User: Which sequence fits this backbone?
């Protein structure tokens, strides 16, 4: 069963933020992971190979479970458009078969999960470059939204 | 009781002897007159080989030294044979050593009805083997020559070793202190430890135990430090609170300012709560990417394309499978076989129902987006505004303080500096406490709090120098468990080792006491025999020396004698051998090479009278020159006398030609007189 994989460096980044912040913390590891993945997906940035990482769980946790459909929507779009430039029904169907796994709790095949993990690592690459050593969650999230918006405008 | 007698000795192509067999009487004295150079020493050496199961090369004697060197032409000169027929506890055993002088090899053969005939190898009965195998020293006591006498009198350890061997106590001693067979209990433990993967269980256990004790002490110290930090933090918290209160009091001294400060502080607290709430709201809104999706035109286009292509089919695979299994189509017509085959081939066009239940909402989300999309950018803006307001309140608070008198402001500044210093200490202690209490393996590794104690998941450095640098209790407790597990692994062997040590000590004490008693007995018997052999010297012998076991002679005044006559030494040696046989539960023959050569005729005569009382069977290889002191024995009809000489050799040893023969002619025995050394 494939799992969410989060790079250690990204975990340290958020641990440090939590330690310093006086306006709140992001204690759920999968939320930290998602913030990275979300940015990576929006920016369309994947990291080729993951470095020193740890496996997380294989299901969406509470705060994300309700948003599984939009998350998959975003990921599937990136997944298909990365390999296909034009579409026909057979090609799309083939991609759907590759992307989904009806036995996985997330419904993601190991290939799709691997892709999401790489977007998370790619998103963290942006974070650590643009938002260096954040020390307060409120300020961090405001800056994060700005960063997200800037990629959405591109 | 082990009873051994020699019945026959046979030589074939050994040194001077072509082929000769001599039958020996099993009881009483046999005097074999053999002139020097005819093979007395060789025979004694080969007898020692046969008794101990060691071939000549194992005693450092080359095979060549036994090769036939006599004047005759012999059959098959490249081979040789020495054999001895024993009666051991009533059964006949023949031990042979076969020599191959070309290959320079020798082999044992054993012949016995017990073995079912002749068998290659050395196979005496078990009690014989236990008593004599590899025990050259013991063999020397009854296969006796001048060297034996010398060793008994002068070689340190000979007496004790021979006593241990003859009484079989050497087997017990081997359990205590290892022996030639390397079977001490300590070695047994060592082997068990080795077989269990521990080189030295006791040492390893002690090392682990020492580490474990050091670790427990260190953990206690860290726990003490933890308590100390926790207590100090309480003190610091209180001190900071007091100082803040003092600042409040100072500010409160100006009632107008106080009111405004209190208000600002109240607002700040409210503001902080609101910021935290809004931050949480923003964080949660970012978990939902719907808003971002709605702003991604390419994505919208992509999903519209999929919709246009009608992918996937609306129905899930189960619907299709149901249709495939029914006879009738939904339109009411019967499905033909060809249609069924076609439908089957299109099965893969349909996704699993579970997937359809995900894909459809995905498409709906893009094509029919929810009306009330929550743009997190709005929440972010609200949060930003709250942060600005908070900053304003903080500035206002600072400005209020500026309105106080310079003295009060200075005092407040000092208090604030003090608070800053205390908070710095507080932060450092909190960091240290976190290092001590963290149980997040990743964090511990990242921060280096394990100080390199953990090599891998289940591998640790257990050196005190290493782990005492580590303060992290999680790591230290893991190490503690690891050490405990390792100790458990080794403890069985270690505990066994401890029991063995106790057994060894008990055995050692018991053996020392037993040996004392045996030595007392041997000493008593030895003196009885010695006084019989040499009554005129009026000496006594003690076995215990000042610092080891050796024969020590005392005169009638009980004064130790620094030197005694060679004859006294020889007499003492015979007496000692006889004495140890009495405690050893063995009846052995005495085979002696030139037994009375150092004795005067009187002493030799005494030896002749006494020796048959000491040993059930005596075989003495003598030269014609020794006969002068043995007239009594020779005259005794119970003494078997034989002369080994060459066939044509005369009574003076001249014309030494022809094969070596053995004659039992008593007259010839007496007259044979070879004056050669």
Assistant:
């Amino acid at each position: 069963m494939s799992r969410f994989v989060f790079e250690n460096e990204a975990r340290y980044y958020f641990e440090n933020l939590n330690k310093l912040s006086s306006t709140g913390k992001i204690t759920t590891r999968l939320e930290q992971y998602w913030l990275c993945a979300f940015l990576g997906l929006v920016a369309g940035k994947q990291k080729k190979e993951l470095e020193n990482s740890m496996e997380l769980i294989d299901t969406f946790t509470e705060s994300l479970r309700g948003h599984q459909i939009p998350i998959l929507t975003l990921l599937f779009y990136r997944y298909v458009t990365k390999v296909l430039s034009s579409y026909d029904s057979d090609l799309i169907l083939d991609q759907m078969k590759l992307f989904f796994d009806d036995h996985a709790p997330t419904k993601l095949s190991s290939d799709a999960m691997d892709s999401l993990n790489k977007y998370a690592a790619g998103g963290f690459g942006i974070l650590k470059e643009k938002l260096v050593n954040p020390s307060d969650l409120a300020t961090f999230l405001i800056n994060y939204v700005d960063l997200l918006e800037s990629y959405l405008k591109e | 009781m082990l009873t051994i007698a020699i019945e026959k000795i046979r030589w074939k192509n050994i040194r001077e002897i072509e082929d000769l067999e001599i039958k020996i009487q099993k009881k009483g004295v046999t005097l074999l007159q053999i002139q020097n150079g005819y093979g007395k020493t060789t025979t004694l050496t080969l007898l020692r080989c046969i008794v101990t199961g060691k071939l000549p090369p194992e005693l450092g004697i080359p095979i060549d030294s036994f090769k036939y060197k006599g004047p005759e032409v012999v059959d098959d000169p490249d081979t040789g044979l020495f054999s001895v027929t024993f009666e051991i506890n009533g059964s006949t055993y023949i031990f042979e050593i076969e020599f191959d002088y070309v290959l320079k090899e020798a082999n044992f053969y054993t012949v016995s009805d017990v073995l079912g005939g002749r068998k290659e190898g050395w196979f005496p009965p078990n009690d014989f083997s236990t008593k004599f195998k590899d025990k050259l020293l013991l063999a020397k006591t009854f296969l006796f020559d001048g060297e034996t006498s010398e060793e008994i009198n002068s070689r340190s350890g000979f007496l004790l070793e021979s006593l241990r061997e003859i009484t079989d106590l050497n087997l017990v001693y081997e359990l205590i202190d290892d022996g030639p067979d390397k079977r001490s209990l300590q070695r047994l433990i060592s082997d068990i430890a080795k077989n269990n993967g521990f080189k030295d269980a006791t040492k390893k256990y002690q090392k682990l135990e020492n580490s474990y004790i050091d670790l427990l002490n260190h953990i206690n110290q860290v726990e003490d430090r933890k308590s100390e930090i926790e207590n100090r933090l309480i003190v610091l918290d209180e001190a900071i609170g007091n100082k803040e209160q003092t600042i409040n009091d100072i500010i409160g001294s100006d009632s107008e300012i106080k009111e405004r400060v209190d208000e600002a502080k109240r607002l700040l607290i409210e503001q902080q709560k609101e910021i935290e709430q809004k931050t949480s709201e923003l964080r949660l809104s970012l978990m939902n990417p719907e808003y971002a999706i709605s702003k991604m035109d390419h994505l919208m286009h992509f999903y519209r394309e999929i919709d246009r292509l009608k992918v996937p089919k609306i129905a899930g695979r189960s619907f299709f499978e149901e249709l495939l299994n029914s006879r009738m189509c939904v339109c009411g017509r019967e499905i033909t076989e060809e249609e069924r085959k076609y439908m089957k081939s299109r099965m893969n066009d349909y996704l699993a129902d579970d997937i359809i239940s995900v894909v459809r909402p995905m498409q709906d989300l893009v094509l029919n987006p929810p009306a009330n999309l929550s743009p997190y950018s709005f929440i972010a803006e609200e949060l930003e505004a709250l942060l600005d307001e908070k900053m304003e309140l903080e500035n206002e608070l600072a400005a209020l303080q500026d309105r106080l008198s310079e003295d009060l402001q200075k005092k407040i500044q000092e208090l604030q500096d003090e608070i800053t210093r205390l908070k710095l200490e507080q932060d450092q202690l909190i960091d240290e406490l976190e290092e001590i209490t963290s149980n997040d393996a990743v964090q511990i590794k990242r921060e280096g709090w394990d100080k390199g104690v953990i090599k891998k998941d289940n591998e640790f450095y257990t050196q005190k120098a290493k782990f005492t640098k580590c303060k992290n209790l999680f790591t230290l407790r893991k190490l503690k468990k690891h050490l405990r597990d390792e100790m458990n692994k080794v403890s069985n062997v270690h505990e066994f080792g401890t029991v063995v040590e106790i057994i060894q000590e008990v055995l050692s004490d018991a053996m020392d006491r037993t040996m004392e008693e045996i030595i007392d007995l041997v000493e008593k018997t030895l003196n009885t025999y010695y006084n019989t052999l040499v009554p005129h010297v009026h000496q006594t012998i003690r076995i215990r020396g000042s610092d080891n076991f050796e024969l020590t002679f005392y005169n009638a005044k009980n004064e130790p004698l620094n030197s005694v006559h060679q004859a006294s030494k020889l007499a003492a040696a015979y007496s000692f051998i006889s004495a140890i046989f009495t405690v050893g539960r063995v009846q052995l023959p005495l085979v002696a090479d030139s037994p009375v050569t150092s004795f005067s005729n009187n002493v030799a005569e005494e030896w002749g009278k006494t020796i048959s009382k000491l040993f059930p069977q005596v075989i003495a290889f003598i030269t014609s020159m020794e006969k002068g002191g043995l007239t009594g024995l020779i005259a005794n009809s119970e003494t078997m006398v034989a002369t080994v000489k060459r066939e044509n050799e005369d009574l003076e040893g001249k014309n030494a030609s022809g094969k070596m023969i053995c004659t039992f002619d008593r007259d010839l025995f007496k007259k044979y007189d070879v004056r050669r050394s």
In short: The mean pLDDT of chain B is 87. The first helix of chain B runs from residue 40 to 52.
